[in-house]
Amino acid sequence: QVQLAESGGGLVQPGGSLRLSCVVSGNAITSYTMAWFRQAPGKERALVAAVNRIYSTAYADSVKGRFTISRDNVKNTIYLQMNSLKPEGTAVYFCNKNPPDMPWGRGTQVTVSS
Question: Which of the residues in the chain have pLDDT under 70?
Answer without folding.
Answer: none
